[in-house]
Structure formats: structure tokens, C-alpha cells
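Worked example

This section walks through a single chain of length 112. The input is the sequence exactly as stored; nothing has been trimmed or padded.
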Amino acid sequence: MSRTVVTVPDVVGAGYADARRVAVAAGLLVVGVAPDGTPVPDDSAGLVVEQDPLPGEALRAGDTLQLRVGRPPGGDREPRDPDPLTHTGHGVPTDPPAERTDPDDDPDLVPA
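Given that input, the structure is written out below as C-alpha cells.
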């Protein structure tokens, strides 16, 4: 008995839960993986950033669609406190630059 041919839906950019529902409704099994290759839970809030096979390809019902899942909109981490770039002086001058003066009063030649 042959399995029904299904067309792989385009789910890149969708939330993982929605993408999973669409793929399952098309007759596919879904495997979600994080960028590091670890499995993603079915209720992940992440977004699908890549899929394999690509949209439009023909598969048999029951074949597997792998979805690579990224962070949810807005990220999934709390902001660092304090921000090292603004609180440690890295990249932020702590004193105004020294004013350059012309030692010989020649307006065209100012030391660099």
C-alpha cells in the first residue's frame, strides 16, 4: 500500500507551534531542533528559521520535516545588568578629549 504524496509547506518565519500544526495537518512528522542541534519541546515559543526539506518538495505522508528553531521574538534572555559597555567605561569616554592647541599660533598647522 503506497502512502499519499504531500507537498512540504513553507513554515519558515512562523512560530514553532503553528508551524508544527501546519506540517502535521499536511501529514508530516515534525522534528524541531535548536541551532545547537538539541531537540525543541513541542510548546517552544521560538520561530522557525530553517526547514529541511524545502517548501514545495514532494514527500510521502508520514515522512519527517525537520525545523530549525531560533529564539522567540524579542529574544529569550533578560538584559544584562549592568551593561558592560555603559557601566565599565568600555567604548565610552570618561573624560572629554584634551583640547588641541597650536604652539606656534599658525592656524594651518595644528598638531595631530
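What to look for: The chain has a mean pLDDT of 79.
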